[in-house]
Specification:
With 397 residues, the protein is α+β, with helices and mostly antiparallel strands. It has eleven helices and 21 strands. Bound molecules: adenosine-5-diphosphoribose and P-hydroxybenzoic acid.
């Protein structure tokens, strides 16, 4: 089937991850034309194992986009998480501490599949294997996006470009030197992420601090577990046999020996780096940045996917405002509006990461501070509410 190659569009979207796909869906719902250009193929985009927790605001955005039918059927609402530390277990309840807010377990892969299927069903332009290699004219009245598709160099002119192309994408690099500033932090450890055909032995996510290092027990469904272990930077996943993974998870999650995971074959494992990064502003002329193209968080706070959804919800509303009023005021406020939420999530992700992980170079004093902070969350409704409010996230916009 020949794929049409539009020559012009209102909004060019680079990247078909959660940010690009949700933005395209929201723009379509406002009658705003866009073309999505994705460098990888559909299978890669739909199978890329990433996040699994949706904030209430993200669920509401997907419902607003008419893209939550399967989420509402298969997503698992969660009303809390459990913290384990110093031989103790403490549950943090969300609704009672946030006025009713909660989160949903629904894998990023499933959200992406839903959005791709909707776009295909509507016959809206989404080109796979179409890497963008240049964005030109962002500070003029007409932008030009240069990409390759079907072995040919192609150009797409547009009124606006949105870089939803992730941390390693091309859009951020199209911003002239000196026109933006990036703030970064690297962490002295990584995560070994594993997926297993094993029913979770827990109803809600378990975050564990231990002298052996951090561990997290999450899930993808009633029969699939998603689990994480803190490992040294650069650790080799092939050095981790199934047996070693399960034994280490039990040692960290069930430190008091009274609790064991349900085991099963591990179907995926990878070492994930941990870093924080924010690029300001999230705009240059007619080029906007959204999602991982603008900011990265360590995964501990489950914020990456939700920040991407918040960015594009704000941006789509701003484009809709422009279409209905002719005013660019909300587009002009996009970066500041999003950065306030981004920095709150950056701090929360930093907090969850540094309180729960055992830094190889940390002192005994640092370790006691971690336990004191965790003890405060367990003992103070104010500290617990702060965690619950940040974990479930504020309404978008
Ligand atoms: N041209 C076209 N597409 C590109 C280019 C390019 N030059 N560079 C990258 N891409 C595509 C990638 O192949 C990917 O599909 O852009 C998409 C970016 O998607 P994500 O990296 O998932 O970023 P985002 O949509 O912002 O979602 C953030 O996804 O990666 C997770 O942890 C992250 O949960 C967070 C969420
Ligand atoms: C996940 O399920 O992948 C997940 C959940 C919570 C986190 C990080 C990752 O904090």
């Amino acid at each position: 089937m020949t794929v049409p190659h539009p020559h012009h569009t209102r909004v060019a979207v680079i990247g078909a991850g959660p940010a690009g796909l949700l933005l395209a869906r929201l723009l379509q719902r406002s009658g705003i034309g866009c073309v999505v250009l994705e460098s990888r193929d559909r299978a890669y985009v739909e199978q890329r194992q990433r996040a699994g927790i949706l904030e209430q605001g993200t669920v509401e955005a997907l419902r607003e986009a008419g893209a939550a039918e399967r989420l509402d059927r298969e997503g698992i609402p969660h009303d809390g998480i459990e913290l384990r530390f110093d031989g103790r277990r403490h549950r943090v309840d969300f609704p009672s501490l946030t006025g009713g807010r909660r989160v949903w377990v629904y894998a990023q892969t499933e959200m992406v599949k839903d959005l791709v299927a909707l776009r295909a069903a509507d016959g809206e332009p989404l080109l796979f294997e179409a890497p963008v290699h240049a964005v030109e004219g962002a500070d003029t009245d007409t932008c030009v996006v240069r990409y390759t598709h079907g072995g040919r160099e192609r150009t797409l002119t547009c009124d606006y470009v949105v870089g939803c192309d992730g941390y390693h994408g091309v859009a951020r690099r199209a911003v002239p030197e000196g026109a933006s500033r990036t703030f970064e932090r690297a962490y002295p450890y990584s995560w070994l992420g594993v997926t297993a055909d094993a029913p979770p032995a827990y109803d809600e996510l378990v975050y564990a601090h231990s002298d052996r290092g951090f561990a997290l027990a999450s899930m993808r469904s009633p029969s699939v577990s998603r689990l994480y272990l803190q490992v040294p930077v650069g650790d080799d996943p092939s050095a981790w046999s199934d047996q070693r993974i399960w034994d280490e998870l039990d040692a960290r999650l069930g430190a008091d020996g009274s609790w064991r995971l349900h085991r099963g074959p591990i179907t995926a494992k990878a070492v994930l780096p941990m870093r924080s990064s924010v690029t300001e502003p999230m705009r240059h002329g007619r080029l906007f940045l959204a999602g991982d193209a603008a900011h990265i968080v360590p995964p501990t706070g489950a914020k990456g996917l939700n920040l991407a959804a918040a960015d594009v919800t704000v941006l789509a509303r701003a484009f809709a405002h422009l279409e209905t009023t002719g005013s660019t005021e909300r587009l002009d406020a996009y970066s500041d509006t999003c950065l306030r939420r981004v920095w709150r999530a950056e701090h929360f992700s930093y907090f969850m990461t540094t309180v729960l992980h055992t830094d190889p170079g940390q002192s005994g004093f640092d370790g006691r501070l971690q336990l004191s902070q965790l003890d405060r969350i367990a003992g103070s409704p104010f500290a617990a509410a702060d965690l619950a409010e940040n974990y479930t996230g504020p309404p978008i916009g």
